[in-house]
Amino acid sequence: MRHARNETHDPALTSWVQSANGHAEFPVQNLPLGVFAPSGGSARIGVAIGDSILDMRALAEADLLPDEWQAVFRADALNPYFALAVEQRADVRRQLSRLLSDGANRAQLEPFLHNASACAMLMPARIGDYTDFYAGIHHANNVGKLFRPDNPLLPNYKHIPIGYHGRASSIRPSGTAVRRPHGQRKSADADAPVFGPCERLDFELELGAWIAGSNDLGSPVPIGDAGDHLAGICLLNDWSARDMQAWEYQPLGPFLAKSFHSTISPWVVTAEALAPFRTAQTPRPEGDPQPLPYLMDADDQAQGSFAIRMEVYLSTAQMRASAMAPVKLSETQFANMYWTLGQMIAHHSSNGCNLQPGDLFGTGTISSPDDGGLGSLLEMTRGGAVPIDLPGGETRTFLLDGDELEILGHASASGCVPIGLGSCKARIMAGQPSA
Ligand code: MN
User: Fold this and answer.
1) Which domains does the chain have, with CATH numbers?
2) 43 falls in which pLDDT band (50, 70, 90)?
3) What is the CA(31)–ligand 1 centre distance, in A?
4) Cα of 153 to ligand 1 centre, how many Å?
5) Half-sphere exposure of 35 toward its Cβ, with a 13 Å CA cutoff?
6) Using one digit for the tens of pLDDT, what is the confidence trace for 288-311?
7) Which of 212, 334, 214 is CA-nearest to residue 279?
8) How far is C-alpha 401 from the chain's CA centre?
9) Which residues are catalytic?
10) Distance 164 CA to ligand 1 centre (A)
11) pTM reported for the whole predicted model
12) How far away, in angstroms, is 184 Cα from ligand 1 center?
């Protein structure tokens, strides 16, 4: 069986970094990789452990890493790590687990720890290409119903993992403010379009998948090998300008409505860390077509999904001014995906398209079948028709300047120490006046 648990997942394992033990996000069973800058320092790779970050460049410089990893961990981005073979990435995890669990290492490694709250989290990798899928079937259904009440899913949906090529350059780590985009829109009853600040600014709750390894141009990744190309995951908010989207999307799909900014959580929770949380893909409802053979693999169906729960919180300027806690808008599960990450990788490369280390996939908005787990305001407000009530008497159809959105995600399974994906948070600010 691939993706087996090993000693690094042992629930009895603890760290000499005391804050890691019982930590909701980063216990020693997680060990996510990211890129950070300590106060006054330059960008470097780190490992989150409790409330601290282990400085991997400092470890490399102190000759505490094997020779073959020197170049990987002296880099200021994870692309060289993503280029490692799957066995090498598993070795990195085993070594990190030993370093951070064995108390004998404490004296030597403690000087290489930084207080996470004093560090800036940066982009984990240079993203070559970003593709956003549409694999959350309940989202696709809900949005489709707004436009086609009797026929929400288009005929290709259950045969193809639908996606579009997004924009890599405007992806930013959690904490970077989002400027409200200006753009062209046309309401149904208007004769002509206008240009101005987006009036229907929305979020999309998604997961991001970081691609490991590469395939040569012209050489598809077989579905059976797709799992080896998953380096890890993060949280993703695919900010969406719905008024711009509605006007521009036909016939070629999303463009400026999506490319102004996307937010990711900065830690890459590795495929190896996620091994205990793999689950079977949710069975297709009776009567749905079987995917074509290039998208079907017994192993991928048996353990290609993940026991991950995601939540969205909103805090408005008024709520913060009156010291109110953020309000939970939604809670959903990875299991609401109609396609696996493996199927997305196999499909994306099936025409021979070459994937590269550090490419990023978005899953598409992951909504649940019930109203408590909707992944966008478009769905919660029925296309903007029904405002939602917020604590303090405010309402929202779409996001206002000063609103702050946070997505959280946690993986859990019986007999395992749960792990977190960290935070994907950003605040909306007024856009630049356009020329
Ligand atoms: Mn999206």
Assistant:
1) 7-121 (2.30.30.230), 130-429 (3.90.850.10)
2) very high
3) 27
4) 16
5) 21
6) 999 999 999 999 999 999 999 999
7) 334
8) 24
9) 139
10) 9
11) 0.97
12) 20
